[in-house]
Amino acid sequence: MSNIVSVVSQNEVAVITINNPPVNALSAEVRSGLLDALTQAQADKSIFAIVIQCEGRTFIAGADIKEFGQTPKLPHLPDVVLAIANSSVPIIAALHGSVLGGGFEIALACQYRVGLKGTTLGLPEVNLGLIPGAGGTQLLPRVLGLSKAMNMIITGKSIKLPDTADNALVHAVTDSDVLACALEFSHTFVKSSGGQKLNNKIVEQDDAEDIKQHALKNLVSKRKGQTAPLKALEAIMYTTQYSLEEGMKKSRKLFLECRDSPQSAAMRYAFFAEKKAQKPKLPSISAPLKNIEKVTVIGAGTMGAGIAMCLLASGLSVYLLEINAENLERGMSYIKNTLSSSVKKGRISEQQAFEQLARLTGTTEYSSIADSHLVIEAAFESMVVKQDIFAKLEATVSTECILASNTSYLDIDEIAYVVTHKSRVIGLHFFSPAHIMKLLEIVKTKHTDTNVISSCMAFAKTIKKQAALVGMCYGFVGNRMYASYGREANFLLLEGCSPEQIDKALVDFGMAMGPLAVNDMSGIDIGYKARKENPNLSVDPAYFLAANLLVDSGRLGQKTGSGFYAYDEKLNRTSDPIVMDIFKNAAQKLNIVPQSYTSEEISERLVLALINEGANILQESIAENAEVIDTIWLNGYGFPRYYGGPMFYAQQLGWKYVKEKLLALHQQTGKDWWKPSTYIDSLL
Ligand code: T1G
């Protein structure tokens, strides 16, 4: 018996223990070890029950996703699940931690479940472009009912174990020792009642069709473009037509289709890319990471207040510093209102909102933030303003305190110019709205100390942000690539495409919103100002000319009621013929020949711009690897997860194809930025 799975019989109960750190994933060794242990336990006539438990921080957290893409080794997980479901001896699962995917399927196949309070249960397979592959779609409806199972499986969302036994999902709950609880449950209940045969009957549900239609309309639709949710729905509906075994066979076929799909390959890549981005290659550090408990946010505008809320939600104490009482009050009330609406929506409790506010201190005095461990400057995007703040900070806080700027494109080395201890200066670039968007771009300057970087990477995990470490360049990684994406949208406008046509093309590609609608929402003047401050702005007269003309004519987007689109008071978007005339006249002056493009040509051109800029970023080592870039685009810009990110998408297109397309665009437009990045040659 491998030490990954062991079995010990004590007092007529066989305890099977799995110990496969870090998350007891169901590797081939665990699967075969589990089967052997079951056989051994079932052969022991002196026992009346079997308990399955796990060492470490969690019960089984799922199949071993590192195995995907390899030839699956025997035994397959469904065979293990069926062996448990058909066990002659009652089996009790002792649950703790995150019981996910195959782990939850194993638990559902057991006749009984006991759990530690706070355990989470889930079937997150859709997040990997999969469906539960070992019977979850057949087992869960028979335990939770069709509708709740539909919701859990299609959304992939976990639930908390009920605090008390519901005798369906869980038969006993403890807040101390889950093995002791399982043993006690075995002796007090199972011994006398014996096993309860697993319910493998067809699920009788009169309103099954309504439940299916509701799921299609409200659940599947939220995962636009993804195939796994649809297949999950199909598999779940098998429970109303077939027995458990028959349904498991049929659903396995759908699982294999998902597993072998490009969407699942991309989403599994995305899962590991985000993990890899959290662990950048850094020189080893001797000193312990900096302890960050007291954080000052400077600037109580939308970004500053959003950052403050994100920190408060993570249990930190926050100083919110503004230049005057009026600005401070506005920021404080924005936070209070947002917290109270979160309470109303049931996102947090009254008590939690109260505790968060209790940890928030507003001030206009630098002297009151002297004991900060970290300061995040989120003030006006002006170098003069930021340097003034950093000079004051240098004179106020300890030299150990990390000084971070939330700037989205200013040169952080230049901000640090006014600071003596430059090694503690770093960029922490949050994305708006900061208390919702997961991405945190961490920007190292030429002086940033490794300990400061590592401390900020750990800090990102504390505040539940997806960290991505990048180097210093204009726009860092996300916004630098976003500029190439917007550049091409602007050029297409001059070539005769309408804003609707461009936006629809990118929505059809899979983006949540089109680039021009996004631009109108955030304000066209933001990019306009940034371009004015860009040291190496393109001299091409057509470069963002469309956007510049709109700003020059006072059309800044939603906030002025018109931008690329016209807006009514409810902000409904409608096309605006004036806009097309502005672009047409400008194009004529530049002798730009009108073209007509298909939706695919439009989206391909903008995505190729992203890919080439990303390749240049890798060439310049501004990002360590493609995973960092893809993590940024998945978490900061809503790139379709089922494509894995721009760089993985390029890999799926084929780098040879990408290079040919770039060469053709370079040929067609004569623009330098279409020259294929030399980095691509290293991939061919
Ligand atoms: N397989 C392999 N490795 C995994 C893993 C998994 N399922 N889950 C996590 N890891 C690694 C992870 O890469 C990292 O490794 C370490 O564990 C700690 O993870 C048949 C087909 C469990 C909530 O989707 O959600 O079952 O970087 O940093 O923040 O129907 O990991 O240290 O080397 O995330 O405490 C379904 C995915 C699989 C769960 C823990 N299960 N994992 O979070 O730690 S498909 C999942 C998570 C399936 C069946 C189907 C989280 C976590 P390293 P971590 P964490």
Please give a structural write-up.
The strands form four sheets. An eight-stranded mixed beta sheet has the order 12-11-10-13-14-15-16-17, with helices on both faces. The mean pLDDT is 95. α1 (28-43) packs parallel to α2 (77-85), α8 (228-237) packs antiparallel against α9 (244-259) and α11 crosses α12 (325-344). The protein is built from 27 helices and 19 strands. α15 links the parallel β14 and β15 (425-430). It is an alpha/beta fold. It starts with a strand and ends with a helix. (2S,3S)-3-hydroxy-2-methylbutanoyl-COA binds at residues 22-23, 25, 61-66, 77, 98, 100-102, 105, 124-125, 128, 130, 132-134, 136, 275.
- The stretches of 5 or more residues where confidence is low (pLDDT under 50) are none
User: What count of helical segments does DSSP give?
Assistant: 27
Please bin the fraction of helical residues.
Answer: 40-55%
Given the C-alpha coordinates, what overall shape results?
globular
Distance between the termini: 46 Å
Q: Can you list the strand order of the major beta sheet?
A: 12-11-10-13-14-15-16-17
Number of separate strands: 19
Q: How would you characterize the largest beta sheet?
A: 8 strands, mixed
* Average pLDDT figure: 95
SS-derived structural category? alpha/beta
- Strand-residue fraction? 5-15%
Radius of gyration based on Cα positions: 28 Å
Bound molecules: (2S,3S)-3-hydroxy-2-methylbutanoyl-COA
